[in-house]
TrEMBL record:
GO BP terms, alphabetized: 'de novo' IMP biosynthetic process; adenine biosynthetic process
GO CC terms of this entry: cytosol
All copies of domain PurM-like C-terminal, residue ranges: 176-336
Annotated organism of origin: Candidatus Chloroploca asiatica
Annotated ranges, domain PurM-like N-terminal: 56-163
Group of enzyme by EC: ligase
InterPro entries in alphabetical order: PurM-like_C_dom, PurM-like_C_sf, PurM-like_N, PurM-like_N_sf, PurM_cligase
Gene assigned in the entry: purM
Substrates-to-products reaction catalysed: 2-formamido-N(1)-(5-O-phospho-beta-D-ribosyl)acetamidine + ATP = 5-amino-1-(5-phospho-beta-D-ribosyl)imidazole + ADP + phosphate + H(+)
Protein name: Phosphoribosylformylglycinamidine cyclo-ligase
């Protein structure tokens, strides 16, 4: 009897069905700048249209994934949000350098392709792209039965954005005494899930501990990773933003120093921003030391903004939910203080 690709675990018909199901969502993100998208061997984007009016454009790119948050989505059979997580994470990463998004490409892989599941994930990607004017230019759907565990999937993506060279961040004039503002997070975003899953396993995703105010642990863990594009644009229109730090893997202690000049650090004052209840649950149930919590998790600090101290009032007027949480120092460390 002859062998088939399907016998080996790869169903080409399922891949075709998935592409058909996601097609409308993908096309809904396209603008006149998209010359070739889904179905083409390579996506084509008209740079002349996208970069029109820019004097000295710099392209900024980033690749990332959503990590083991996919396992929470699989356990709860909720796939509509992880695509948004992916896009928003990548937008925030290039936003830190001052860029706005142009186009995005996604990668979804699993042991066995479920067309509805894959289409739902990609529709989430398209939802976030539409919300930010970012074209979903293409991607890859891979079925790899000997690489991925049955029932699991992986999700990653690449973004390309643009910024005027003169507006690149961080600026070179960051200095001790500059203020640090925080834009709050909605939860874990896309980092710390290996630790969070280990702690949450004790109660289970369906549990509704009192500290979560009626939400289940699973619901709290699937809270969508915020995109800060709108808030950062409002800040840059109101004040001179000197630097931005997206608080992702490595938390406060690893990410803020990435944008600071050598020899500088910061003091961050406890109690100056709201901490989402899911962090309280994880810290208490996991008995996490403070340094571990702020290293593995964002602890409510989604995006940090550095600006001159005299501009704090204007910044808070432009984005009222921002919190004044700290100050840049001349010591090469980030510390929490009371």
């Amino acid at each position: 009897m002859s062998e088939t690709y399907r016998d080996a675990g790869v169903d080409l018909a399922a891949a075709t069905m998935a592409k058909a199901l996601m097609g409308a969502a993908v096309r809904s993100t396209h603008s006149p700048a998209v010359l070739a998208g889904m179905g083409a061997f390579g996506g084509c984007f008209d740079a002349g249209v996208a970069l029109q009016g820019l004097r000295d454009p710099v392209l900024v790119s980033s690749t990332d994934g959503v990590g083991t948050k996919t396992l929470v989505a699989t356990a709860l059979r909720r796939y509509e949000t992880v695509g948004q997580d992916l896009v928003n994470h990548c937008i925030n990463d290039i936003l830190v350098q001052g860029a706005r998004p142009l186009f995005f490409l996604d990668y979804v892989a699993s042991a066995r392709l479920d067309p509805v599941q894959i289409a739902t994930i990609v529709e989430g990607v398209a939802t976030a792209c539409r919300a930010t004017g970012c074209a979903l230019l293409g991607g890859e759907t891979a079925e790899m039965p000997d690489v991925y565990v049955e029932g699991a999937f992986d999700l990653a993506g690449t973004i390309v954005g643009v910024v005027e060279r003169a507006q690149l961040l961080p600026r070179t004039d960051l200095a001790p005494g500059d203020a640090v503002l925080a834009l709050p997070s909605t939860g874990l975003h896309t980092n710390g899930y290996s630790l969070a899953r280990r702690i949450a396993a004790r109660d289970g995703y369906a549990a509704r501990p009192a500290v979560l105010g009626g939400a289940s642990i699973g619901e709290a863990l699937l809270a969508v990773h915020r995109c800060y594009l709108r808030e950062v644009e409002a800040l840059r229109n109101a004040v001179t933003v000197k630097g931005l730090a997206h608080i992702t893997g490595g938390g406060l202690f690893d990410n803020l120093p990435r944008i600071l000049p050598k020899g500088m650090g910061a003091t961050i004052t406890r109690g100056t921003w709201p901490i989402p209840p899911i962090f309280t649950y994880l810290v208490e149930q996991g008995r996490l030391a403070e340094h571990e919590a702020y290293h593995a998790l964002n602890m409510g600090l989604g995006m940090l903004v550095v600006l001159a101290p005299e501009e704090v009032s204007a910044a808070l007027a432009a984005v009222p939910e921002a919190c004044h949480v700290g100050v840049i120092t001349d010591r090469a460390e980030v510390v929490l203080v009371d």
